[in-house]
Amino acid sequence: MSSIEPFTLSVPDSELERLATKLSTASFPDELENSGWDYGAPLSDIKRLTTYWKDQFDWRRVESKINELPNYRVRIQAEGFEALNIHFVHQKSNVVGAIPLLFCHGWPGNFLEVVKLLPLLARPGSGKSTPAFHIVAPSIPGFGFSEGTKKKGFGLVQYAETCHKLMQKLGYEKYVTQGGDWGCMITRTMGKLYPESCLASHINLPRGMKPSIFSNPVLAIQHFLTPYSEKEKRGLGRTQWFLQQGSGYRVLQATKPQTLGYALADSPVGLLAWIYEKLHDWTDDYDWTPDEILTWVSIYWFSTAGVAAAQRIYYEATHPSPDGVHRTMTEQYIPHVKLGLAYFPMEISSLPRTWSRTLGPVVFESEHDKGGHFAATERPDAIADDLQKMFGKGGPAYEVVPGRGGYDFSSKL
């Protein structure tokens, strides 16, 4: 499949039956009294969600809603690896000059994180006051309904290459990006490798490093002279909590993903608990419905590459080849690509602003009073508003893509 083709999702009945069997015979561990969330996902929550998954959750209804999206697949080959069938959503605006935007998810997210953004960004706002975007949201390789590699070494360079080639295949020679979690690191890598095409990026997991007098003298002086704000202090506290209490998963997935994969691939309840904990801990009191939770978990359970594939990005991004990109390199200065930073109070890592400004030529920053790690799901209004301000008329990245300013209303589709 070398050409772009429509994609319709259809999980075989046999897979639904296998899931139902596993859920009906699931075993659960015991639990300490009054432990709450201290030790992980509470037993009562996991039992409740397992029962709902088995008896009430309607995957075929979810599947039907997914199939209402403009889904496509195309075969893309990263250099040195086999060609992979890549699934993506492509919502074209009716505005000819709409801005091409790649939306990139991470773990344990998926392509559906873009859904709430589609009506906000594909069409201009009232009075044609805001720019429109052509939105491309892939299932990154090994996730969702994209294939995954069978070879070692498929790291950030290859994820970036795949996403870049997808945009090229769609006719978007120049484009902008938005991402959080791995989406942040993948799009940052795209800017590092393809600055002539990836012209601007908006990220909602801004990290960076403490500014040095040698590499960032102006920021270093600002950092020395300016006390941390109360928001920055709370952000550092949140970051410390994550590093000390919430990042054990990252060590496992970055060191022995295959061993973990046996448990997750065999036990849907184990997969549910593994993901549900993150949905709870990483958000800002977002009111997840059982259907939302189980849709996300089911996408991993029914994924094309298999449940274990999605963990491997953690290993590859921390064990790159000599010519690869380590995840920490995405926290260093990347020139040429205009950068927008969004800060949410319950993000898992929130560093002082002078640290984040070491990432590159920052042209836009936003502070939000509510929201966490899954910003496009929790606060789609905030992400959309950021993008419209950053790329709209009067914004610091207006017309960054030549001929695609977002305001050409000469065509109707």
| Unreliably modeled segments | none
Measured on Cα atoms, how large is the radius of gyration? 21 Å
Order of helices and strands: EHHHEEEHEHEHEHHHHHHHEHEHH
The biggest sheet, with number of strands, parallel, antiparallel or mixed sense and barrel status, is: 9 strands, mixed
Q: Strand percentage, roughly?
A: 5-15%
Helix content: 25-40%
* General form: globular
**Major sheet strand order:** 1-2-3-5-4-6-7-8-9
Category from helices, strands and their pairing? alpha/beta
Describe this structure in words.
The chain has 413 residues and is α/β, with parallel strands linked by helices. It contains 16 helices and nine strands. Helix 5 packs across helix 6 (182-193), helix 9 (248-255) packs across helix 13 (312-318) and helix 10 (257-266) packs across helix 11 (268-281).
Structure keywords:
about 425 residues, alpha/beta, 16 helices, 9 strands, about 40% helix
Nutshell version of this structure?
The protein is α/β, with parallel strands linked by helices. The chain contains 16 helices and nine strands. Helix 6 links the parallel strand 6 and strand 7 (198-203).
